[in-house]
Structure formats: structure tokens, C-alpha cells
Amino acid sequence: MNNGLINAIIAYVMWGILPLYWKLFNDVPAGEILSHRVVWSFVFMGILVAIQRRWSDVKRIWTSRTLLLSLTASGLLIAINWLIFIWAVNNGHVVETSLGYYLNPLLNVLLAVVFLHEKPNRGQWVAIAIAAVAVLVIAIDYGRFPWISISLAVSFGLYGLAKKKIKQDASVGLLSETAVVLPVALGYWIYLGIVGKTTAWTLPVSMFFELLLSGVVTALPLLFFARAAARMSLSTLGFVQYIGPTIMLILSIFVFKESVSPVLLGGFALIWTALIVYAVASMRATKLAKSV
Question: Phi and psi of 106, rounded to 5°?
Fold first, then answer.
């Protein structure tokens, strides 16, 4: 559990500061950024798996129809999440991306109860109720249907569920996920070349090198997340996730200068109240289980 918590915190801190990285490529369309993200993630994970000498595990995946279908689903889900996130950040919607990842833990709890039969205790349900009220207040104050937030929450929530159910090494699983969407990314590269709309290849050398690093930037937090998902309950993992959108919200206010209302800040305070209540309830439940 402790090892899982450390991995989760590292993953969510990395995701929280990720908007700073994607803002470097404001002039590159989201779809093109995504294609580079997939390709260079595949390259990075291929090198890592080769170093680990895990090719026999990769071969086992590609000969197992069940594993292959599961990893195909998770690969498509995370690719959709990446595309929406990149587009939102580069079009001035960092606050809405933050809201999406505030919604995600609530969805995680729902998915955990329905599909994994996890049973939150009374204190955890209180925390969930407080967080639900906070998210509702934030959504109403936002003034329009937050489709970006909903899409990010649903895609990443289902991805987390898929990772929880797939019993596979993090490195091998991520390589397989990127391999599934690699043909689409390469096909998009070819299409952009045919129609003469490639942007990334015309970037200055230093900036193109930064784009090459998208493989590392993408893969590292996903590796930590996969290890956390294997060691923690889905509902608890979801609540730790509040670290990421909180960092995003701070960046949107102080770095990207997006407008934030007092109501949104009140919702933010409620979210952290819920997080504290959930943490206290979880620790009490753990102590009680040890004493029995």
C-alpha cells in the first residue's frame, strides 16, 4: 500500500505539471502532437523493455486474445484522453481540464463499487458526498456543459479500471498499449505529409528535441500509475489523484492567467476537505483491520 501511494503521488505530480510542457507546442495541432506522443512513447518503452529483457512477456501478450483485446481497449482510451487534454491545454481550457480530473475520483469510486465490488466505509462515503457537492458547485459556476471535463474523467476512469483488471507488468503493458495505436499515429504522419500540413518537422532543432522527449514525459507517469494501480484500491487511488488537478488549477491561475471565480475557489476548498476526510477514514479503517 505504501509503495503504491508513493508511486501514485509521483505520477500525479508529474501529470499536474504537464501543461507547462504541452504549452511549449502551442503552434502544433493537437492531433500532430498526439501522433508524436504515441510514436516516441513506443520508442522509449521499446528501449526500456529491451533493457529489462522482457520480450518473452510481450510475445505472450500478442498470442493471448484476451490480453490483446484488453490492452487494445486501454490503449485507445488513453490515446483519446491524451488528445482531449493536449487540445484543451493549448486552447486555454486548463481550468476545465482540472475540473475533469476532479470528477475522475468520483467516477473511480463508482466504477470500483460496480465492477470491483469495493465497499467504502461510512467516513469514505461522507468524503465522497462532500467531493460530489464541490464538483457540482464548480460545474454550475462554470456556466456551460463541461464536455472537456466529462470526456477526460470518463476516458481516464475507464483506463484506470482497465489497468486494475489487467494483470501485466507496467513496462510491457504500456509498450503493448502504444503499439496498438502506433499504426494510427504513423498513418496520420503519412497523411500530413501528403497534404503538406506537417508542423512538427519544421520546428527549430531545440524545440523538436523537446518534442522527442514527449515519449519520456508520457511514459514515466503512466509507469508509476500502473504500479500504483496494482497495489491500491481503485477508490483510494482516485482520491490521491486530486494532487494532479490541484497543481493544474494553481498553474491556470498563476501561470496561464485564466479567470477563476470565488465560487471555484470555494469548490477547491471543499475538494481538499473531502480529501482529508477520506484520508482519515481510510487510516482508521486500516488500524481497525490490523487490530482485529
Answer: -65, -40
